[in-house]
Specification:
Length: 141
């Protein structure tokens, strides 16, 4: 088995780990070669030829061709692109629900604060009314 085939199998293992392919047959379909060829390569009975190598590089653009052919560099191309991860929709829904609960709680607190202040105003008005009967000046409310 040659070094290129070993690196080709490393790519296959990487693609399985990343859940981009699941089986030899699925990998074969992705790179448009026969499943039996991938099986033979996986069993180390044959070397990877130009077709599976070329099709892998075309289909999976993140694989560095120089690394696959020569072993120099890294398996994955290094890019300067910043990829923004898309948030998981269930996470977003959960965060929104938490925000709604917080707003509802704040609303309840505000309602309680308003009720408390209204009762304090009423109490103070009563105090003023009772104290105005004792000769003190009356404050309009």
């Amino acid at each position: 088995m040659n070094d290129i085939t070993i690196r080709f199998l490393d790519v296959y293992d990487y693609l399985k780990k990343e859940k981009k392919v699941y089986t030899p047959k699925g990998f074969a379909n992705e790179i448009e070669v026969s499943p039996s060829l991938i099986t033979e390569i996986c069993k180390k009975r044959t070397n990877a030829g130009i077709t599976p190598i070329q099709n892998t590089l075309i289909r999976f653009e993140e694989i560095d061709a120089n690394w696959l052919l020569t072993g120099k560099g890294e398996m994955l191309k290094i890019t300067n692109e910043v990829k923004v991860a898309q948030p998981d929709s269930s996470l977003v829904v959960g965060l929104l629900n938490d925000k709604i609960k917080l707003l509802e709680k704040n609303s309840e607190m505000s309602e309680k604060q308003i009720a408390f202040l209204e009762s304090e105003v009423a109490r103070l008005k009563q105090e003023l009314a009772s104290s105005s009967g004792s000769g003190q000046s009356r404050v309009a409310g």
